[in-house]
Amino acid sequence: MKRPWTTWLAWGLWVLMLAVSTTAWVARTAWHAVPNDTSTSGTIAFTAAMIAFGTVGVLVVMHVPANPLGWMFLAIALLVAGLIGLTGQYAYQGLVQEPGSLSGALFAAWVYRWLWFPAVALILLVPILYPTGRAPGRRWRVVLNGLIGMVTVITILMMLYPGPLDDGTPPLPDNPVGIDALESVPGGDALIGISFFLLVVSAALSMIVRFRRSRGDERQQMKWMTFAAVFLAAGVIVPNLVGIKDTGDVFFAVSISMLPIAFGIAMLKYRLYDIDRLINRTLVYVALTAVLGAAYVGLVLAGQALFSSFAGGSNLAIAASTLVVAALFLPVRSRVQRFVDRRFYRRRYDAQRTLEGFGARLREQVELSALEHDLQSVVTETMQPTHASLWLRSER
Questions:
Q1: 3-14 per-position pLDDT tens digit
Q2: pLDDT for the residue 74
Q3: What 3-state DSSP class applies to 174?
Q4: Predicted local distance difference test score (pLDDT) of residue 71
Q5: Do 70 and 64 form a contact (C-beta atoms < 8 A)?
Q6: Is pLDDT of 122 > 70?
Q7: In the chain, domain spans
Q8: Of 39, 151, 274, 327, which residue is most buried, by most CB within 10 angstroms?
Q9: What is the predicted pLDDT for the residue at 73?
Q10: Tens-place pLDDT, residues 307-356
Q11: Which of 74, 28, 26, 70 is nearest to 50 (CA)?
Q12: Calpha distance 258→265 (Å, rounded)
C-alpha cells in the first residue's frame, strides 16, 4: 500500500531534526562553545527527550495525520533539539570563542535570541488541543486564537527589541535589526512573564474542563496527560527548591520526556488503562519515600544524640537507622498501599475486600445453595451488572 505524503514529510522532518541535533552535539564537542551552563549529562538527556518528542510526533502523524498535535511535537523537537542548540553553538563560536571565524554568526545569534519562545509556547499549547486536536469548546477556540496571537506578537517584539542578543558573559553584540523606539516601551520582561503565566493557566484550566467532560477512553487519555503534566511541574519546581544543577538538568529532561511518552500511549491507545495502576504506584511510592525519609532523618538525629559518647557514634547511628528503615519498608509499604486504595480507589478496595471475604467463606461453606447466593452477591457488589444469573450444570 502506498504511504501518504504526510508520512514521508513527517519522517523527513524527523531525519532533519536528528541531523541538526547531531551537528549541534558535534559542534559542542569540537568548539566547547556552550551558550548556557547545562551539564553534558543534562544535554544528552534533553536531546533524548526531544528525540522522543519527534518520534511520537511521527507515529501520531502516521495514524491520525489530521490531528495537529503530531505536527506540533515534530516542530517542538526540531526547534529545541535542533535549531536552538545549533544556532547557539554557532553564534558563541563565531562571536565569543573566535570572533569573526564564522560567517553568519550574528544572524545565528539573532535566531537563537527569539526562537526559544515559540518552542516553549508550543509545549504549553499542547494540553489545550489534547487529545482531539481541537479546543474543548467554542469559547476555548477564542482563548486559543488569543494565545496564538499573543505568542506571535511577543516573538516579533523579541526579534526587533534592541540591546544585546544574549546577556551571557561576555554578552553577545546588539540586535542588528533592533528598533531603538521599542527600548522606551516599559515592562518588556514583565510582558513575557505575564504571557507565560497566561499560557500555563490556560493549559491547566483546559485540562480541568476537558477532564470533567471526558468519558471512557478519553478520560483515560486525560489521566495520562495529567500524570505527565504533574511530573513536568515537579521537574521544574523540585530542582529549584533543592538547589541542584547537574542532576537537576537530567531530572528536568526526564520529566519533560514524560509528555511525549504519555501522549504516545494515550493517542495510540497502547496499554491505555494501565494509567490507574501507574498513578496508584506513584502515590504509594511517593508517600513511602516521604515517610521513610522522615523516619531516617529522625532516627539519625536521635541516634547521634544517643551514641555521641561512643567512638564513631555518628557512623553507628547511620548504620542503625539504615537497618531500622530497611526493616520498616515492607510493613510501611503495606499500610500506605491500603491507605491509598481506601482513599483514592475505594471501589477497587471494597471489591478486593469482598473477594477476600468470599474466598474465606468458600473454604468453609459446602452447601451449594448458600454458595450460589454468595457468588451472585459478590458479582453484584464487585462488577455491579444490571443483571446477574448463575447456571449450574446438572448431573445426569
A1: 688 888 999 999
A2: 92
A3: strand
A4: 92
A5: yes
A6: yes
A7: 5-270, 283-344, 348-383
A8: 151
A9: 92
A10: 665 555 567 777 777 788 788 878 888 887 777 677 655 556 555 666 66
A11: 74
A12: 10
Q: Is the pLDDT reported for residue 132 higher than 60?
A: yes
* Helix, strand, or coil (residue 358): helix
Q: Could you give the count of Cα atoms lying within 13 Å of 363 in the half-sphere of its Cβ?
A: 5
| Distance (Å, whole) CA 95 – CA 187 | 29
**Eight-class DSSP state of 345:** -
Map grid coordinates 491505555 to a residue: 272
Other beta carbons within 10 angstroms of residue 22's beta carbon come to 14
CATH class of 5-270: mainly alpha
Cα–Cα distance between 374 and 115 in angstroms, integer? Answer: 66
Which of these, 134, 277, 281, 288, lies nearest to 206 by C-alpha position? 134
Distance in angstroms (rounded) separating the CA atoms of residues 39 and 34: 10
Is 93 within 8 Å of 33 (Cβ atoms)?
A: yes
Query: CA of 151: how far to CAs of 5, 12, 62, 144, 196, in Å?
Result: 30, 27, 28, 11, 9
CA distance 228 to 347: 25
Provide the β-strand partners of residue 174: 164
Residue type at position 297: V
Angle between helix 105-129 and helix 188-213 axes, rounded to 10 deg? 30
- Burial bucket for residue 392 (CB in 10 Å: 0-12, 13-18, 19+): exposed
Listed residue (275, 144, 264, 138) closest to 219, CA to CA? 275
